[in-house]
Design goal:
The complex is a heterodimer of chains A (237) and B (73).
Chain A: H1 4-7, H2 13-21, E1 24-28, H3 34-44, E2 48-53, H4 77-88, E3 93-98, H5 106-110, E4 115-118, H6 123-136, E5 140-146, E6 149-155, H7 180-199, E7 208-213, E8 218-223, H8 231-236
Parallel strand pairs in A: 1-2, 1-4, 2-3, 4-5
Antiparallel strand pairs in A: 5-6, 6-7, 7-8
Chain B: E1 2-6, E2 17-20, H1 28-34, E3 44-47, E4 50-51, E5 63-67
The chains are: A alpha/beta (237), B mainly beta (73).
The structure holds zinc ion.
């Protein structure tokens, strides 16, 4: 039986497996983080997965974006992801959305999601996703990398968001350095947080910025606080 | 003491945690300059977990966390 091993986990069990089957997760961006995120959520039997991306596969993606192969170069990522994940687990419903996200269309695209996972590679889109999720009160799992380093944390209305911690000032110089195995660690952690949220478990990384340092092999958490002046939060209230 | 925690590439060639005598430092900017980090290299500066500008004052017992840009996918 496909889910036998995870039903053995007492926090999952048969009841949790049903919850996962009835869950709807929206993944934004189909790069290095999304490869493990989508793979593990599909494996775990999350019933409905949407993927929003407006990119095609290039050879420079292949060091980390393992959903794609050399034969896929030039094709839309959402189309290949659809083929790969549907073959992986035909029981799940997959919605590939080949569209560029902006302030005007995001509301509609994420409205049915129980959780949104941010897998984009730029600050501007992260800020749009952050505000949209706060406004619609949808839990958001953030993750990002740079070389051997990465971070993960979770956001919802009662807890600090990207704008609370001043993330909007981040000036990334693309292309960002990325090692496949490190992106895999961070994407896997995002999938874990998502599953915890769907199952209603304690210990979700709300208000806790988890930092991974691959060079020394350590995880460190920084407790973060809501900012009374946060415009994203003011916008909601 | 002021505890300073550096993250990601800020750690390369520096200690990941340092303790500084509070007398020598009045602002977050003075602390990052001690570490030879330029203002525009800092993406996030947290004092006791709160977003803070570099001209924010610091005092004994504060924990400062400094992050360079991290956000690739
Ligand atoms: Zn906020």
């Amino acid at each position: 039986m496909r889910y036998e091993r995870q039903i053995l986990i007492k926090q999952v069990s048969e009841a949790g497996q049903k919850i996962l089957a009835n869950s709807n997760v929206c993944v934004i961006g189909s790069g290095g983080l999304a490869s493990p995120v989508l793979t593990y959520l599909a494996c775990a039997g999350v019933g409905t997965l949407s993927l929003i991306d407006y990119d095609t596969v290039t050879d420079s993606n292949l060091n980390r974006q393992f959903l794609y192969q050399e034969k896929d170069i030039g094709k839309p990522k959402v189309q290949i992801a659809n083929e790969v994940l549907s073959a992986f687990n035909p029981e799940i419903i997959f919605h590939p959305i080949y569209q560029k996200i902006d302030k005007t269309n995001i509301t509609e695209m994420i409205k049915d999601a129980d959780v949104v996972i941010d897998c984009v590679d730029n600050v501007e889109t992260r800020m749009i996703v952050n505000r949209a999720c706060l406004q619609q009160n949808i839990p958001l799992v953030e993750g990002g990398v740079n070389g051997f380093y990465g971070f993960v944390f979770a956001i919802k209305q009662e807890y600090p968001c990207l704008e609370c911690i001043g993330y909007g000032n981040t000036k990334l110089k693309p292309p960002t350095a990325a090692l496949g195995a490190v992106v895999g660690v961070i994407g896997s952690l995002q999938a874990v947080e998502c599953i915890k949220i769907l199952l209603g478990l304690e210990g979700v990384l709300y208000g806790k910025l988890l930092n991974y340092d691959g060079l020394i092999g350590s995880f460190e958490t920084v407790e973060i606080q809501k900012n009374d002046m946060c415009e994203a939060h003011l916008f909601v209230n | 003491m002021i505890e300073v925690r550096l993250f990601a590439t800020f750690r390369e060639g520096r200690d990941k945690i340092s303790y500084l005598e509070p007398q020598g430092y009045h602002t977050a900017a003075e602390i990052i300059h001690y570490f030879r980090i330029a203002d525009d290299e800092v993406a996030i500066c947290l004092i006791n977990g709160r977003h803070s500008k570099l001209d924010s004052s610091v005092k004994d017992g504060d924990v400062i966390a400094l992050f360079p840009p991290v956000g690739g996918g």
